[in-house]
Amino acid sequence: MSSNIKILLIYTGGTIGMQKDFETGALKAFNFSKLLQRVPELKLLDCAIETISFENPIDSSNISPESWVAIAEVIEQNYADFDGFVVLHGSDTMSYSASALSFMLENLGKPVIFTGSQLPIGDLRTDAKENLITAIQIASLQENGKPLVSEVGLYFEYKLYRGNRTTKISAEHFNAFTSPNYPFLIESGVHLKVNSDLLLPLPQNKVLKIHKSFDNNVMIIKMFPGINQKILETLMAVPGLKGVVLETFGSGNAPTENWFVQLLKNAIEAGIHIVNVTQCSGGSVDMGKYETSSQLKQIGVISGKDCTTEAAITKLMFLLGQPISNENFKNQFEKSIRGEMG
Ligand code: ASP
């Protein structure tokens, strides 16, 4: 091995770190310290790999803000000693975690690459090996002695995406993620094709700052024709509610019925932040384009612009955990802080 590049692999759980017990057919977590034995190809990479695993690896359906803090603390404690980090995570909620980590890690100057797989690493047709190997390779890319990627990315099936731009689109295909409103950052083919102009710039002389506070007094409401007034009123009246991500139609449209607009208006006046994102799988909210969104703009609904729901809800929890006044909240939310919105 010629380079001195060191990569830390952080295993949180999920299919990628499992193997099939060929006698019982059940999936079980394998001993991560034996990773190099199971994936001997890793020895061919021009970097040193160390592994660390959650004491009790979890299916990503059980991921919580506490897990995000645990991942961030591993990065914090090892930041000076490693050139890059690869987070192995179940794919189901990977986009939420990648978004959350992107907000937590301010002035990130090293790559943090999330990856996982649809099939366990021991499976004959597994996608785990390619995802793992290329994610590590990307985390070790350097240019003039500096990391090429200095943001939270998500690598899956030949593409590196900005983590907070991704969403899981398939429970079946190896091509399980997409980034509807931002192009991929790197594509793996015969060569690694890097779209350098799309990467976040390396922070200059700035120290990594880790924010660990989230407020989960929030909910997501997906609009549908026929949404029930009583049910919505009950939800909005839940004590302690501080924020709502409203998945609206098209470019941010919602019913113009008086009860609906008045309900949101009262909530906003009571200090509840309402973020408008589209339930379309691509495109942006543009409040005021149609009459059906003008009233939302007037009453002070926050534009989630072209954010994914995953980025919007984690950003909401993140900003609610920061000391931001109610008056400033809308302004802060509508600014892109880690490249999550256009
Ligand atoms: N249910 C698994 C998880 O998200 C699926 C996967 O690992 O991809 O943890």
Give a structural overview.
This protein is an alpha/beta fold. The chain has helices at 35-38, 65-78, 94-104, 128-139, 229-236, 258-269, 291-298, 309-320, 326-333; strands at 6-11, 18-20, 27-29, 48-53, 84-88, 105-106, 112-115, 142-143, 146-147, 152-156, 159-162, 167-168, 177-178, 186-188, 192-194, 209-210, 218-222, 243-248, 273-278, 302-303. It has two domains: 6-210, Rossmann fold (3-Layer(aba) Sandwich), CATH 3.40.50.1170; 218-334, Rossmann fold (3-Layer(aba) Sandwich). It is globular, with a radius of gyration of 21 Å. Helix 2 crosses helix 3 (94-104) and helix 3 crosses helix 8 (309-320). Bound molecules: aspartic acid. Aspartic acid (ASP) binds at residues 13-15, 59-60, 90-92, 116, 118.
